[in-house]
Amino acid sequence: MDAKHLGDDLTVVLHTEEELRVRLAELAREIERDYPAEPPLLVGVLKGAVMVMADLARELNFHAQMDWMAVSSYGASTKSSGVVKILKDLDADITGRDVLIVEDIIDSGLTLAWLKENLESRGAKSVRICTMLRKPEALKVDVDVAYVGFDIPVEFVVGYGLDYAENYRNLRDVAILAPHVYSGS
Ligand SMILES: O=P(O)(O)OC[C@H]1O[C@H](OP(=O)(O)OP(=O)(O)O)[C@H](O)[C@@H]1O
Ligand SMILES: [Mg+2]
């Protein structure tokens, strides 16, 4: 799907499907090197991380277990509420385990800073973060991120799992959403 199928909703494609694939393969090689003994438990953050998780897990050359959490701080808005709610918790007990959080985007950093601390407090052996996208100039808190696909400008982006009001997640590329779509929200 490309912009012309979506009318004027998108302005610029920031990263194409192919760029995302190539970068994710590079990250997978780093992750394999960093966990030579025991593969980490991959923890995907629903719903945005579904695409990254599916592609990363298949790219990794080890037996990766996957678990999921759902937390939400955005809802139908382009601004984080700053309040993180657990909508679905992990099935796995992570005591003593290496955990790799898999995310689509770090924007203000509020969600991931909170989540990392939450998982560490459960007695995980280590908690690292892998994110496809990060907006360095939007960060409101320090988040230690081990693996970053691309740093992007402070624009609201959609596609490759990222939504606005639950739409656009199934776009193959990552694109900037035209402000007229969300103005007033
Ligand atoms: O760094 P932050 O400013 O905290 O933003 C990042 C978070 O916001 C998005 O989730 P959202 O709450 O939209 O849920 P979703 O994945 O279901 O879309 C995204 O998937 C991250 O989890
Ligand atoms: Mg969202």
Structural notes for this entry:
This is Hypoxanthine phosphoribosyltransferase. There is one protein chain. This protein is an alpha/beta fold. The strands form two sheets. A six-stranded mixed β-sheet has the order 4-3-2-5-6-7, with helices on both faces. It is 23% helix and 28% strand. The chain has a single domain, classed as 3-Layer(aba) Sandwich (Rossmann fold). α1 packs across α2. Bound molecules: 1-O-pyrophosphono-5-O-phosphono-alpha-D-ribofuranose (PRP) and magnesium ion. 1-O-pyrophosphono-5-O-phosphono-alpha-D-ribofuranose binds next to β2, β5 and α3. Magnesium ion binds next to loops.
Please name the defining characteristics of this protein.
28% strand; binds 1-O-pyrophosphono-5-O-phosphono-alpha-D-ribofuranose; 185 residues; Rossmann fold; alpha/beta; 23% helix; 6-stranded mixed beta sheet; 3-stranded antiparallel beta sheet; Hypoxanthine phosphoribosyltransferase; binds magnesium ion
Summary?
With 185 residues, the chain is α/β, with parallel strands linked by helices.
